[in-house]
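[Automated response] Your request has been received and processed.

Submitted sequence:
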Amino acid sequence: MLIIPSPTALRSANPPRFCLQAIQKLKRDDGHEGIDELPRNCKICMEGVSSHVFTPCGHLCVCEGCAAQMTSLPRAQRKCPICRSAYHSIIKTYRN
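Generated structure:
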């Protein structure tokens, strides 16, 4: 059984040993390992790769095509798809 650590435990300066073990053991069927290696699918179309972040909430959750459509929405409808808070801008991000 895999124990998923709480976000608070992961942010602490000295996370519990089980947190580190859970992160190290995290492996998916598609061959990706670790939290940074998990694929980030667009939360709107579910097909593209998330490459745009909402400000100020900071959620990285939409692809380039969906970001373009969301910027054309009326200001009253501009909300982050994750937390539903109003966003000021959408910024393209780059992964190494």
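Summary generated for your ticket: The chain has a mean pLDDT of 75. The first strand starts at residue 52 and ends at 55.
If you did not submit this request, please reply to this message.
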